[in-house]
Specification:
Layout (H helix, E strand, L loop, with lengths): L1 E6 L2 E3 L5 E9 L4 E9 L6 E7 L4 E3 L7 E6 L4 E6 L8 E11 L2 E6 L3 E5 L2
Parallel strand pairs: 2-11
Antiparallel strand pairs: 1-3, 3-8, 4-5, 4-9, 5-6, 7-8, 9-10, 9-11
Length: 119
């Protein structure tokens, strides 16, 4: 199994920036992709950004040009740099790892970190 621990959430004004971090531990070798999801009250959890072990990235249309995902393989950590934050970015952000064991794929989740964009 993989354990994921997020940090970096908080309260920020519109237009501000935050950087989220997610440190992975455990069966690191089984990770094939890392990413960030978010869930706002009353809404479904949605993909924000993802990065594969090859370095390929993917972003939700709503965050393209504002958010950047990156990973430090030496530290087993994935980051989400969020610039130009908007009130609609307010949500709990979850770190996610797609892992493989044999022929099966699994989803591992962090505990979540709150991001609030407000005046």
């Amino acid at each position: 199994q993989v354990q994921l621990v997020e940090s970096g959430g908080g309260l920020v004004q519109p237009g501000g920036s935050l950087r989220l971090s997610c440190a992975a531990s455990g069966s690191i070798y089984s990770i094939i992709a890392l990413g960030w999801y978010r869930q706002a009250p009353g809404k479904r959890r949605e993909l924000v950004a993802g990065v594969t072990t090859r370095g390929d990235t993917d972003y939700a249309d709503s965050v393209k040009g504002r958010f950047t995902i990156s990973r430090d393989n030496a530290k087993n950590t994935v980051y989400l740099q969020m610039n130009g934050l908007k009130p609609e970015d307010t949500a709990v952000y979850y770190c996610h790892a797609k892992t493989t064991r044999g022929p099966h794929l699994y989803d591992e989740w962090g505990q979540g970190t709150q991001v609030t964009v407000s005046t």
